[in-house]
Amino acid sequence: MTVPIAVLDCDLLLYGRGHRTLDRFKLEDVTDEYLVSTYGFPRQFIYYLVDLLGANLSRPTQRSRAISPETQILAALGFYTSGSFQTRMGDAIGISQASMSRCVANVTEALVERSSQFIHFPEDDASVQQLKDDFYTLAGMPGVLGLVDCTHVAIKAPNAEDLSYVNRKGLHSLNCLMVCDARGLLLSAETHWPGSLQDCTVLQQSGLRNQFEAGMHKDGWLLGDNSFFLRTWLMTPLHIPETPAEYRYNMAHSATHNIIEQTFWSIRSRFRCLDGSKGTLQYSPEKASHIILACCVLHNIALEHGLDIWSSLTMGQMEQPEEEYEHMESLDSEAYQVRKELLITHFS
Fold first, then answer.
1. DSSP SS3 for 59
2. What pTM was computed for the model?
3. 61 vs 14: CA distance, rounded Å
4. Got the DSSP string for 125-146?
5. What are the DDE Tnp4 domain coordinates in residue numbering (predicted)?
6. Sheet holding 173-180: strands in order across?
7. 86-103 b/e with 16+ CB inside 10 Å = b?
8. CA atoms of 168 and 178, how far apart (whole Å)
9. DSSP H or E segment with residue 234
10. Is 249 helix (H, G, I), strand (E, B) or coil?
11. 141 CB neighbour count, 10 Å cutoff
């Protein structure tokens, strides 16, 4: 005798048809304050994301109660910004663990697909010059095209044998290489590097280095700390400054480069799933990398919409990262000459 197998909708089974889910939730019924406190963003920003991602999130489905794009976005934003485990956030908004996972996955992939649209270096001459002018205004450092640094995001151990993700603190992490402008807008983000790799190794193997070595970004340089090698396109501080010009250069370098530390702080403050206080990202390295990149995309979209978290929080509360790198000596004589000319021309 054949026993029929019923395919059950898990949300229907758990909550029933009459349960108030986010598909019945109306943004017009609540205040911006509620939306910001629960999902991290105001109403108009959420509407923008629905317009931006709606086509990706409205794929055909066999389920009778397909989750709307608006619901998927709210669920994903709740996870990104709260750092809560999916089961807890799913319970709070009235969808199951399985549905919560689908929402986060769908929205994450839709944002990752648009990463090149929102994270990129300026291309036209006027925008590149404005980029340099903005940096020069900060502390008098000329020719700067971006600030580069790495930050680690904790992830679960992929498996007991794989030590490539164990960082120098003995924790599993992804080492993320990022570049930002003077406002903290990300110009480049590579979020997939194993935590065991040193910052200089990540940069050496990165697509970012390939761009600069190929001359895609001419007549300027990045600013990086002493965890990187000095290059013609990457200016680092002097290890032991001796002259007044060298001290002035180091001070201008430090004041300018500090913006990327503020940017890391801003991203972690807004997207609590990345800050480690709620535990590690419970995903494979690939999926965790995509979640980090999705948050980077949202960070840039938020800045473009005037949602600057720096102005809403006291910067004095920012914890300064521990200096863990070793001073990297470069054998690039051309790079030394470029920095020497910079010292003579602008800081003597």
1. coil
2. 0.87
3. 20
4. HHHHHHHHHHHHHHHS-TTEEE
5. 148-300
6. 186-194, 173-180, 144-154, 221-223, 234-235
7. beebbeebbbbbebbbbb
8. 20
9. strand 234-235
10. helix
11. 24
Of the candidates 135, 152, 153, the one whose C-alpha atom is nearest the C-alpha of residue 143 is 135
pLDDT tens for the chain, 348 residues long, are 444 433 334 444 333 343 344 445 567 777 888 888 888 999 999 999 999 999 999 866 545 457 889 889 989 999 999 887 666 666 656 677 788 889 999 999 999 999 999 999 999 999 999 999 999 999 999 999 999 999 999 999 988 678 899 999 999 999 999 999 999 999 999 999 999 999 999 999 999 999 999 988 888 999 999 999 999 999 999 999 999 999 999 999 999 999 999 999 999 999 999 987 767 899 999 999 999 999 999 999 999 999 986 655 444 444 444 445 555 566 689 999 999 999 999 999
Q: Are 166 and 172 in contact (CB under 8 A)?
A: yes
**What are the sequence ranges of the domains in the chain?**
10-113, 116-347
Helix (H) or strand (E) run with residue 37 in it = helix 32-39
- Rounded to the nearest 10°, the torsion over CA 264, 267, 272, 273 is -90
- Tokens representing 288? 């965790």
